[in-house]
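Lab notebook: predicted structure, single chain.

Context: the supervisor wants predicted structures on file for every construct in the current expression panel, including those that have not yet been purified. This is the next one on the list. No modifications to the sequence; it matches the entry in the shared construct table.
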Amino acid sequence: MLNLSETGRDVYREIVPVSFAYEDKLLECFNAEEQEQFSTLISRLYSHAEQIEQK
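Prediction complete. Output recorded below exactly as produced.
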């Protein structure tokens, strides 16, 4: 569990919209189907990384 200070919450509220906007800009080069495929592959990669860490 992570608890942020008030300053941490302020920074979080400031950074998250910027990071989502940047992600949207990055993904503009993919069509909707490619974006879905990319998301699926990234999810699979994260799952695999978790399995590696548990070994």
